[in-house]
Amino acid sequence: MRRIHVIGIGAGDPDYVTAQAVRALNDTEVFFAMDKGQAKSDLVELRREICRRFITRPGYRFVELPDPQRAADGDYTQAVADWHTARARMWAKAIETELGPDGTGAFLAWGDASLYDSTLRILEQVAEHVEFGFDVIPGITAVQALTARHRIPLNDVGEPVLITTGRQLRGSGVSGSAVVMLDGECSFLGCPPQTRIWWGAYLGTPQEILVAGTVGEVGEHIAEVRAAARARHGWIMDIYLLRP
Description:
single chain; alpha/beta; 2 domains
């Protein structure tokens, strides 16, 4: 039976790659990667660099797949579901045509496959079209990288932490510590000015940016820095922790 590794490769620094991930990398014949266009080509290149650094045997190869377009308007949940379905069809065809009946392939998940990553959900759909077994190798998440770089604990003493998105923050707000991901609209600007924020972008890379303070003190500055960085690189990955 075909096998697939889903390998968490950390938040940007190749040193985040675990020994378990290195073993899985060296067990892989074909790496499947989503081609998201020229602006994000360095994300594929980082995956290639990790392979060059850690794989000790020759013969592996990359198969780049064009990422289907996701509808920008209409119902968000339906748009994501349709996008996942389109990806699943493409992945199923690629696995069937590029991987032998007992071959081993891999998807390299940025950060960790458990946290706001679609890989595992899509593979569930792929399994409806082609037979394979898979495992998951956890990685260093952006949450871990953010708190480590700011040298702070994730939670207040005895208190919970919410992990949410910018969309949810705009709709519901927060009453305690919250990690916010996937926020393209700087939703923290709607928080009370005394809210503490620890923000980071391109964590673990040479382009890393860190800002901390209250929303009133640094909120507008973060929005400006974020816009400039996104314009400069053509993409941005950022995350932040809020505390009222």
